[in-house]
Design a protein that fits this description.
four-stranded antiparallel sheet; elongated; binds FE2/S2 (inorganic) cluster
Length: about 160
């Protein structure tokens, strides 16, 4: 009898069991991990878009800056975990806004030369009152209630 030693012989198959991982199991673990990471990457921006600052929640009263800190470039701060900014207004006062774009949640940038906010994602623009003035954003930026006490600029909740 002649023994077949050619390449047609079946390759040895891994045995299922403790300490042995099959190609199928390895790939399913890799795909499950990639799916979880992908969903997490989308979930956080979606939640921030849907609820930039939750209405109806108890708002913190927070000193966000002093008047000396607010230059024409504005002054960034976080309010209720939301990137925000206080800017000097044309009438000599101050206004504070969430920097979360009302289109798809990108972070807008204050343009002191033009006195408007510009969104880098789809070229949305908001004026110094937060009003959406061009591009796809469907509504104004979230504006905060702001009070000045001495030199302290204090934010507490959403302006209506
Ligand atoms: S996310 Fe700002 S314009 Fe689209």
């Amino acid at each position: 009898m002649i023994e077949d030693k050619s390449s047609h012989a079946a390759a040895p198959q891994p045995k299922e069991g403790v300490g042995v991982i099959t190609r199928r199991r390895f790939l399913s673990v890799v795909f499950a991990g990639a799916t979880a990471v992908g969903l997490g990457a989308f979930a956080a921006p979606l939640a921030r878009y849907a609820y930039p600052v939750l209405k109806g929640q108890v708002f913190a009263r927070q000193q966000v800056a002093t008047t000396a800190q607010v230059t024409a470039d504005g002054f960034k701060f976080d309010y209720m975990d939301t990137p925000s900014m206080v800017i000097p207004t044309s009438d000599g006062g101050y206004a504070a806004f969430s920097l979360v774009c009302t289109h798809l949640g990108c972070i807008v940038k204050w343009e002191p030369k033009n006195k408007d906010f510009h969104c880098p994602c789809h070229a949305g623009k908001f004026d110094e009152t937060g009003k959406n003035i061009s591009g796809p954003p469907p509504k104004p930026l979230t504006k905060y209630n702001l009070t000045i006490q001495g030199t302290a600029i204090i934010v507490e909740g959403i302006a209506t």
